[in-house]
Amino acid sequence: MQRDYQPDLNGSDEIYGQEELIERAKGADALLVTVTDIINRDVIARLPGSIRMIATFSVGYDQIDAAAALERKIAVSNTPGVLTNATADIAILLLLGAARGAGNGEHAIRQNTWQNWAPTGFLGRDVTGKRLGILGMGRIGQALAKRARGFDMEIHYHNRRRLPAQEEAGAHYHDNLKSLLPNCDFLSVHAASTPQTRGIINSETLQELPPGAIFVNTARGDLVNDDALITALQSGHVGAAGLDVFNNEPDLDPRYRTLPNTFLLPHLGSATLETRNAMGFCALDNLDAFFAGKPPPNPVTP
Ligand code: DGY
């Protein structure tokens, strides 16, 4: 970026407020933003006329009002594909961490409260051979299914469209969420945050899970109604949750921290050196194409 552009870099990773972002956009041709920059309709309306493109350093783009951008003829791009494996790896980590109570075990070691090995100490639940439900069978959902097959898990999924047999690889398709949920010893969500999916994990949907099911979220916090999930975790109807994303990050609902059956990570699904480099170069490829007068490889459309 330093070589090919004259960037105004945010060297400290501090989150700019909307006013500062708009101010810094003055005279710029493009914005390279990320999940913490809320580019809503109001911000887009107030961006200077010089801005012709917004490239987000993320696969998710729910923080950008793409329709408002289109109306102002501002192109938008994202970074799909390059973070698929890293995110699917974290889904497996959450699945195992939640099922095996890894957070509690690690906490006991760090706090020096581990007394001794005991037959009923730190009891978790098996993963091997269980049923895994995947809500949203895009790239990351499929990469999770591939990993889960290594644990002999039976894969069930719900997606807007059924995958071709080769990609489905024996997974059971459910054409609606209600049919998927009773088949989930584990449920992992991999849907984008849209008006249709926000709050899709709520008291009604959680009620359809088998008692003790384990819930995993690497997608977006706002897919979940926190009150409903916390109530289900408190009652044990949801046996455990592995969460990498939250509503109102980083000020997540504090009850998650005190529940013994949660395994929590700070939105680090894509956080490997290799993946974050690939995301950066992907964002640059989109900018380069756009300013060379070609279609960006990863356009976002409303
Ligand atoms: C994304 O890219 O949308 C992730 O949430 C952050 O890497």
Q: What do these coordinates show?
A:
The protein is an alpha/beta fold. It has two domains: 18-82 and 272-291, Rossmann fold (3-Layer(aba) Sandwich), CATH 3.40.50; 84-264, NAD(P)-binding Rossmann-like Domain (Rossmann fold), CATH 3.40.50.720. The chain is 34% helix and 14% strand. It has twelve helices and ten strands. The strands form two sheets. It has a seven-stranded parallel β-sheet with strand order 6-5-4-7-8-9-10. A three-stranded parallel β-sheet has the order 1-2-3. Helix 11 (255-258) links the parallel strand 9 (238-243) and strand 10. Helix 4 (84-100) packs across helix 6 (139-149). The longest helix is centred in the C-terminal third of the chain and has 19 residues, at 273-291. It is globular and about 65 Å long. The protein binds (2R)-2,3-dihydroxypropanoic acid (DGY).
What are the key terms here?
2 domains; Rossmann fold; alpha/beta; seven-stranded parallel sheet; 14% strand; single chain
Q: Helix- and strand-based class?
A: alpha/beta
CATH-derived topology of the largest domain:
Rossmann fold
Mean pLDDT: 98
- Give me the CATH architecture of the largest domain, please: 3-Layer(aba) Sandwich
Q: How many strand segments?
A: 10
Query: Which CATH class of the largest domain applies here?
Result: Alpha Beta
Helical fraction equals 25-40%
How are the strands of the largest sheet arranged?
A: 6-5-4-7-8-9-10
Q: What is the count of helical runs? A: 12
Number of domains: 2
Question: Low-confidence parts lasting 5 or more residues at pLDDT below 50?
Answer: none
> Any idea what the shape is?
globular
Largest sheet: 7 strands, parallel
Run of helices and strands: HEHEHEHHEHEHEHEHEHEHEH
